[in-house]
Design goal:
The complex is a heterodimer of chains A (717) and B (396). Helices cover 59% and strands 11% of the residues of chain A. Chain A has 717 residues and is an alpha/beta fold. In chain B, helix 7 runs parallel beside helix 8. The chains are: A alpha/beta (717), B alpha/beta (396). At the A-B interface, helix 20, helix 21, helix 22, helix 23 and helix 25 of A face helix 7, helix 8, helix 9, helix 11 and helix 12 of B.
């Protein structure tokens, strides 16, 4: 519970900062599938990044590689997938290269997914409650272990920092911190008891409101509601929620609430019950208005400290921590400078002598970069962290290529000669092309990695002076507190249940207590999807991937689910990747939109740009193929089907289905043309020499109407 | 006005205690597209399936081209049991009245059962009689080789007539093109199956018909010998359409034919349905939850909510003046490809408890203005009329 509150605190603070933080970066991702018919190139080099608290929509037809991308991020690709190239950077890790053990701590915890079909993503023979709490209970131990480990390392690092800044005080501070760790456990237990009582009070209060409403409407049928009020009110008795004193005046009423209800129902006169319920409801309301006491502070005082925690120990601790961080930051800036110099030198060597010249120097460069990675960083520097791994991989490729390319080429020539002889005798014989490593690509990749990090470091060094050290310290300490709470927070069934019920309420499931015990088949489609969302949110993820979450649902439910996702995004500051084939759905969801076709992003921009000024013919086609409420004329369907990705077409993949295709579209792949700072499209139509082409009439007409309507509405306002 | 193609009267379909469809009435005229919308579980698919007699309906009647093809008996039975209860304490005069009433209702039940079970048989008999009437005088007139020829034709016509069923004039297109095609039958078999059941034996005729229809729906001849898994989603749905259209139906019930398809493919299939409608003069019952598609495709639209039809109007009228609060909430939920409008949009919520006050009077379908029906109470009826600027009237 504590941990949850703290995370939210950080999230809110981070939102205030003007800096945008890249949560996830995808660079040049290429994924293929091995099939019996050949290699299907599902994703062909896409790059995008996801910022904190934004929604990125990926739009495209089925088979355009949207789902493959999202599955690659979660590391749940099919067995025959080959990751050919690229990187997915998340918090200092390359998700394409880490192992299953590391993924265990990410998947579900940090990255969560909502699948398309809620019926097939729920287990039909398990109760909803069990499915909701399963992961919480399973991961509780692992999470405690991870918290303990991280707490240890963070404390270690911080105390070391503090030693450098104030050697004489450090022993005393460390002793106090250990003491605080012990107290934290006690306070978490108290907090859990408080939360349980409070949730019961909330439940009872809500039930009271419900009964009053139904009595007023003369529609109260289910009399067991009264028993619920009675039981929940009793459970809500807690010194900090509903005290015994407060409960005493209504005790009689609570206990007699269920008596004689049948008779009253026959007479159809609930006035007395309504009176009782109103009184109970008032009591509960005053109880709920009380502020939550600070249990950590309480335990701290109980342990015999005279000063308050915040004023005394924490203030001191923070001061020293800040001093320590200042010192170390200065040190790491120097390291970074050194690393940048080394990188610069390395780059020159690479340019002059190629990778062969670079290899002997590589160890030194890698060491300089590794040294420059600051362990006191809440969001790890992904580029620096993955540098060594990348370089090792690339250098191994280079050596492998040098060693085996010639041999493979020779073997190929030999076999080809033999095949030709056989062919001359009339026997068909094909020789597969050799899988040689393209050394030029390896070398250019090396250059890209080195120069990328160098530029990144130079930027960071320049920005060093502007960083707010006090805030950084605060965040670090908060993180440590969170870890300490995580160590103590034991997830038992009762806590898990409470959390699950709260989640169910949050996603808009009425009567969560009844629903908790039901099976998936007892839910309607929309409700099932809500359950799936609740399961995805159970672990407070950073990034939520929604893979066509509303395609199987109808309009009203779709609108509700979209609103729900939007609301949760704002509340929890989530970053969302939203995958869909329906452009209409993303209009009120997305901040930015990537339109995908045949494994590539063909257009990328903010949602306003994509809807009001689309530039790629495929986006035009998507927009004009769906009817809106004013459409009367024939729909402009996109002719044909997406290309077979075993043999990706030469030139622009969309050319064959494109009404505006030019000759060059069949010859050469279009490069990316920048339309505005945030908007680009890969189509030859944007080339300065291309003829001026207007989007189809259906699209221009619709945009004109939309603009007129917007103007009208804002005019009225 | 001439007889509508399909008339549904007080259709009820109960599954145990669940009233999936409860007292739904509507008519579909020849050549029009009637859209049925509502959220999942509101009974729109059940309505479609009841019409094509996949279920035995609980009560009400369905007339197709003037003939009753399905009828339920529950309403009659309920009235009989009510009358029986009343008989116990009634005066002798009233008693006689009630007894004649019961006898009448029993006769109705018998009729309903006969129509429901034997409509195909009656139709078949009629066709056979027609064939007899056509050929028997011919047989009398001709002799020799020509007579043999005629006799052969006569036998064939008779066989085909015997295998005819009335309900095959209604065909269905299903939602999921993957699940609704048998993976072990070739496209040829799938499309020809209905024709074979209907008595067509000649292989050349079957092939020709299948080829024609394949080309009509935008596929090619070569596809006939392939299996469903070799096709993309849109092509599979085309096969589903071909299978329905090859039977030369007069009414097609399209149960969410585009919901499972990608947006771009959706447009292809909708265009195809539109062409077929124009070329063959088909009539459609179009069931869908995507309102923009329904608006685009339908002439009239019925909105369903929990088994009831709540509003029925021409599509332009319905979208211009939605009266029932549920329709309004449904319309407010349509996503539009317009980010600025979307961000401002207010979605209306529908809560039947707070929206209506049906304490005194049960609601029923009333015609608010010509062709625009709303399920409402008398008080709401007045309000709706005022909204349309028609002034209140006490008479319907």
């Amino acid at each position: 519970m504590m941990a949850e509150n703290n995370t939210k605190g950080i999230a809110v603070q981070a939102q205030e900062s003007p800096q945008t933080e890249k949560k996830l970066q995808v660079h040049n991702l290429r994924i293929s599938f091995r099939t019996s018919a050949g290699k299907v190139q599902a994703v062909r080099g896409i790059s995008f990044d996801l910022q904190k608290g934004e929604t990125l929509a990926i739009v495209g037809e089925s088979g355009s590689g949207k789902s493959v991308t999202s599955k690659a991020i979660l590391g749940i690709q099919a067995g025959n997938a080959i990751t050919e190239e690229g990187e997915i950077l998340y918090n200092g890790m390359d998700l394409l290269k880490i192992g299953e053990d590391d993924f265990y701590h990410l998947r579900g915890d940090k990255l969560a997914m909502i699948f398309q079909d809620p019926l097939s993503s729920l287990n039909p023979i398990m109760r909803i409650g069990k499915q909701l709490t399963e992961a919480m209970l399973l991961k509780s131990k692992a999470r405690r272990k991870a918290s303990r480990k991280e707490f240890g390392t963070w404390m270690g690092i911080l105390t070391k920092r503090m030693e450098t800044a104030a050697p004489e005080k450090s022993a005393e501070l460390k002793r106090q911190a250990d003491h605080l760790k012990q107290l934290e456990k006690k306070s978490v237990k108290k907090e859990q008891a408080y939360q349980a009582a409070r949730s019961c009070a909330e439940e009872a209060e809500e039930e009271c409101e419900n009964i009053l409403y139904l009595i007023e409407k003369k529609a109260w049928k289910d009399l067991s509601d009264a028993a619920k009020v009675r039981d929940f009110t009793k459970h809500a008795i807690h010194p900090d929620v509903l005290t015994e004193e407060e409960y005493k005046p209504v005790r009689e009423r609570v206990e007699s609430l269920t008596r004689g209800l049948r008779a009253r129902q026959k007479k159809n006169d609930f006035s007395e019950t309504a009176e009782s319920v109103r009184m109970i409801s008032e009591r509960l309301k005053t109880a709920l208005e009380k502020e939550k006491p600070d249990y950590l502070e309480q335990t701290w005082k109980e342990a015999g400290h005279s000063e308050s925690l915040e004023e005394g120990f924490m203030k001191e601790f923070k001061e020293y921590a800040e001093a320590g961080i200042r010192v170390s930051d200065r040190k790491f800036t120097q390291y970074r400078q050194k690393a940048a110099e080394e990188l610069g030198k390395g780059l020159e060597t690479l340019k002059a002598g190629g990778p062969d010249a670079l290899l002997p120097e590589l160890n030194r460069i890698c060491k300089a970069v590794d040294d420059s990675i600051d362990p006191v960083e809440l969001v790890k520097d992904s580029m620096a962290c993955t540098f060594t791994g990348n370089m090792k991989y690339l250098s191994a490729r280079w050596r492998e290529g040098l060693r085996s390319n010639d041999r493979k080429e020779k073997k190929y020539q030999r076999e080809k000669a033999r095949a030709e002889k056989r062919a001359a005798r009339g026997k068909a014989w094909t020789v597969p092309a050799p899988t040689v490593i393209d050394l030029d690509t390896v070398s250019s990749n090396m250059e890209r990695v080195i120069s990328g990090l160098k530029e990144h470091y130079e930027e960071r060094i320049a920005a060093e002076g502007t960083e707010d050290k006090a805030r950084k310290t605060e965040l670090v300490i908060r993180n440590i507190e969170e870890k300490a709470a995580g160590m103590a927070a034991r997830m038992d069934k009762w806590t898990a249940r409470n959390k699950a019920l709260k989640l169910m309420e949050e996603v808009g499931i009425s009567e969560p207590r009844v629903r908790y015990r039901q099976y998936p088949f007892e839910f309607s489609g929309g409700m099932r999807q809500r359950i799936v969302i609740a399961i995805a949110l159970a672990a407070d993820p950073d990034i939520l991937i929604c893979d066509e979450p509303t395609t199987a649902l109808d309009v009203t439910i779709q609108a509700q689910i979209l609103e729900l996702i939007n609301r949760l995004k704002e509340k929890r500051n989530l970053s969302i990747i939203f995958i869909t084939h329906d452009l209409g759905v993303v209009a009120n969801m997305a901040d930015r939109i990537a339109v995908m076709y045949a494994g590539k992003i063909v257009e990328y921009g903010t949602s306003e740009e994509i809807f009001y000024a689309p530039a790629h013919p495929y986006t035009w086609a998507l927009l004009s193929s769906m009817p809106d409420l004013d459409t009367k004329e024939k729909l402009e369907a996109i002719p044909g089907t997406p290309p077979n990705m075993i043999y990706p077409p030469k030139g622009d993949a969309f050319a064959e289905r494109n009404r505006y295709a030019m000759e060059i579209d069949f010859e050469e792949e279009p490069p990316v043309f920048q339309v505005s700072e945030t908007h680009w499209a890969a189509t030859w139509l944007l080339h300065p020499d291309a003829p001026k082409v207007d989007p189809p009439a259906a699209v221009t007409e619709r945009i004109r109407k939309m603009k007129a309507r917007t103007a009208e509405v804002s005019g009225i306002e | 006005m001439s007889e509508p193609l399909l008339r549904v009267e007080h259709l009820c379909q109960y599954f145990g205690p669940n009233k999936a469809v409860d007292d739904v009435s509507f008519e579909i005229n020849k050549g029009e597209v009637f859209g049925l919308v509502g959220e999942s579980g509101c009974g729109k698919t059940t309505t479609g399936r009841s019409i094509i007699k996949l279920y035995n309906i609980t009560s009400g009647s369905i007339y197709f081209k003037g003939k009753r093809i399905a009828a339920g008996t529950k309403s009659y039975k309920d009235r009989i049991s009510e009358a029986r209860k009343e008989i116990a304490g009634a005066s002798p005069e009233r008693r006689r009245e009630l007894e004649t009433e019961i006898a009448r209702l029993r006769e109705e039940i018998r009729k309903a059962r006969r129509d429901h079970e034997q409509c195909d048989k009656l139709y078949k008999n009629e066709l056979v009689r027609e064939v007899r009437e056509k050929f028997e005088p011919l047989l009398g007139k001709t002799t020799g080789e020509k007579r043999k020829q005629t006799a052969k034709e006569y036998r064939k016509a008779l066989r085909i007539a015997k295998k005819q069923r009335y309900v095959t004039k209604i065909q269905m297109i299903f939602q999921d093109p993957i699940a609704s095609l048998d993976p072990r039958m070739t496209v040829m078999d799938t499309i020809a199956e209905g024709l074979v059941i209907r008595g067509e034996k000649d292989k050349a005729v079957l092939e020709q018909k299948v080829y024609d229809i394949l080309e009509r729906v935008g596929l090619v001849r070569e596809h006939a010998n392939r299996y469903p898994h070799e096709f993309s989603g849109g092509q599979r749905q085309r096969i589903g359409v071909a299978r329905a259209v090859v039977m030369e139906p007069e009414l097609i019930i399209a149960d969410e034919p585009v919901s499972a398809l990608d947006v771009s493919i959706q447009a292809q299939v909708i265009n195809l349905l539109n062409e077929l409608r124009r070329d063959f003069g088909l009539t459609f019952l179009f069931i869908a939850h995507d309102l923009s598609v329904v608006k685009y495709f339908s002439d009239r639209i019925g909105v369903m909510y929990y088994g009831h039809m709540v509003e029925l109007a021409t599509s332009d009228e319905l979208f211009a003046h939605p009266l029932h609060p549920y329709t309004q909430s449904l319309l407010s939920a349509i996503p539009l490809p317009d980010p600025l409008m979307e961000k401002k949009r207010k979605r209306l919520k529908y809560d039947p408890l707070s929206a209506h006050n049906y304490g005194n009077e049960m609601p029923e379908m009333r015609e608010v203005c010509p062709g625009h029906f709303v399920r409402c109470s008398m008080e709401e009826f007045g309000r709706y009329r005022q909204q349309l600027g028609l002034g209140t009237s006490d008479e319907e």
